[in-house]
Amino acid sequence: MLIFIKLLLAHLVGDFILQPTRWVLHKQSNKIVSKFLYLHVLLHLVLYMLVLWNLSLWKIAATVAVLHFIIDLLKLYANDMFKNKSVPFFIDQALHIIVLYCCAFYADLYAHTLALFENLDWYLITAIVFVTFPASIIMGKILEGMSNQIETDHKSLPNAGKYIGIIERLFVLIFIVIGRWEVIGLLIAAKSVFRFNDLKERNNRKLTEYILIGTLVSFGLAILAGLLYVS
């Protein structure tokens, strides 16, 4: 596990701290002929060797560096296939982490992966999944009759309310799991403060009631999931 953590640290430093924006732009424009692509991979190789600090592990560092080059190169040519540029970014990072994992545990990859899955807390994973999109859909069904009576605010970001709800439910679930119920009260208070001025300016009772009901339902679903998990 320590080797994986060290490789991950080197990756984070090389990809996010020691990679200037001009390198990224130059790679996107010049792709395989970009000098910064090769400099970037060389930097990663140096970082891998530094964190491992063991010459006998040079094959791991070299393998990860070569695969890093291949993944980055594929990303440069695949970028234009995606309208949402965050998609290739996350795919790229996921592939890098998979490579780090495989190289770190290459000696007993199957046994370690099997043990990892066997030790997963499936109850917690189910609770986490539930408070994301399933809970959003349930809330939509519960509030469907009320939402038709609320005027749409075109100034809002698309799906902003849905993602805010998902994040707040995840926080509530985490606080319940670690036994910090008092923080949930602070979270509700913080959300109320942010909403207060907006609702005051609108002076719309229906909207206020709708948001209040939605907030209570959202927190209620998260608390229910948390209670079922800890019970």
UniProtKB/TrEMBL annotation:
Protein name: DUF3307 domain-containing protein
Keywords, in A-Z order: Membrane, Transmembrane, Transmembrane helix
Domain of life: Bacteria
Pfam families to which the protein is assigned, alphabetical: DUF3307 (PF11750)
Keyword Transmembrane helix appears in the UniProt entry: yes
InterPro entries named in the record: Phage_phiKZ_Orf197
Transmembrane annotation, as ranges: 32-51, 57-77, 89-107, 122-143, 170-190, 210-230
